[in-house]
Write a structure and sequence with these properties.
This protein has 282 residues and is α/β, with parallel strands linked by helices. The chain is built from 11 helices and 10 strands. α3 packs parallel to α5. It is globular, with a radius of gyration of 18 Å. It binds iron/sulfur cluster (SF4).
Length: 282
């Protein structure tokens, strides 16, 4: 199946997903996808076309249309839809055309920056556009994510999609430097409709970060800016009332543009309740 239900931690981000390419040339140093796809890092970093992808996608899109699928289909988890290979191949654009022709909802998750702007005409207010924002400094970004677009390009793309009326979200994961992640929220919250906040996993740096403090600081900041947010379970367990968070597995719901909802209590003991009240599961 090309359109599939993600499992594990990915399931928190999307109910359905589709990987447009095999492999990814962004070469992020923390990328889990090589092991998830049983490839070496070197072979994973040389992307290739998936066999008969567009014909098979047409067939699956028709089935989802018949099934009246309403969940957004996320492009992509184990590759970036706007990695460099897509400039020439344009498989992402063709995939979007196929899905939209069947009235299916999509969401893009990318570090491709300006490259994503090419397809802005295909998305509507029913869809969503998202970027992973990890750092603000160009040199650090090139060190951690050497093939990806620089942070300012990604932020520009988010701003541009938001201005076009397309709901936006930012994935703050992995968190490499908590202070930088908090600064990203401050700099982008006026055009990012939803923040999904995680942590850093499977990396030696992770054990040097005070996650309890970061979880508290992030929630406090997001509350103070009246932002919509979703704290991933691996970070939410550091919040005081994490036990109130049910074992939900679907992604946070992102609607069309709307101001943050009603006023909510600000005490640390209430933050998980606010998070849940804003993001009922699909
Ligand atoms: S953009 Fe995503 S899939 Fe591509 S290398 Fe980076 S983390 Fe992996």
């Amino acid at each position: 199946m090309l359109i599939y239900e993600p499992r594990g931690r990915a399931r928190e981000y999307a109910a359905l997903a589709c990987n447009v390419y095999s492999g990814c040339d962004h070469r992020c140093t923390y990328c889990y996808a090589p092991s998830a796809t049983r490839k070496t890092r070197d072979s994973f970093s040389i992307p290739s076309l998936r066999s008969d992808f567009l014909r098979k996608l047409k067939k699956e899109a028709k089935q989802h249309w018949l099934n009246r699928t309403n969940e957004r289909i996320l492009l992509s988890f184990t590759c970036d839809p706007y990695q460099h290979i897509d400039v020439k191949e344009q498989v992402t654009r063709q995939a979007l055309e196929i899905l939209k022709a069947r009235n299916l909802r999509v969401e893009i998750l990318t570090k491709g920056g300006f490259r994503a702007l090419r397809d802005i005409d295909l998305l509507t207010a029913d869809d969503a556009f998202a970027c992973s924002l990890t750092l603000l400094d160009d040199e650090q970004s090139l060190e951690w994510e050497p093939g990806a677009a620089l942070p300012k390009e990604r932020i520009y793309a988010l701003h541009h999609f938001h201005e076009a009326g397309i709901p936006t979200w930012a994935s703050l994961e992995p968190v490499i430097d908590p202070a930088v992640s908090l600064q990203i929220i401050r700099e982008t919250h006026t055009f990012v409709d939803l923040f999904k906040v995680g942590k850093l996993n499977y990396h030696p740096l992770a054990s040097t970060i005070n996650w309890r403090k970061f979880a508290h600081d992030a929630v406090e900041l997001l509350e103070s800016l009246n932002c919509k947010y979703y704290i991933k379970r691996d970070l939410a367990c550091y919040l005081p009332d994490a036990a109130l968070i049910p074992n939900h597995t679907t992604a946070a719901m992102l609607g069309p543009h709307s101001p943050a909802q009603s006023q909510h209590p600000h005490s640390a003991g209430q933050v998980a309740r606010r998070q849940l009240s804003l993001f009922p599961t699909l």
